[in-house]
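Review this fold:
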Amino acid sequence: MADLSGLSDGALAVFAFAAYHELSSGQRVRSVVQKDSVGHRASDAAVDELDGRGLIKADGHEIVFTPAGEEVLQGIVSTIRDLRRA
């Protein structure tokens, strides 16, 4: 898995948002909205940080997880699911 050391809370929040949607829908998430019409948006700094690490690609409206980013997201979702067994 990609090295996540030093990621900002904003960058982690992008993964948390995607994990929430995956867990609540039961469907694999490969992208999330970067900015919507009601004022919700991912931090520009977080988007730049994740893009710089090769975990996402973003176009101002949508954040698409790269294969490395998808691997990270799946690891996070698995870790959350494992909490049921703890």
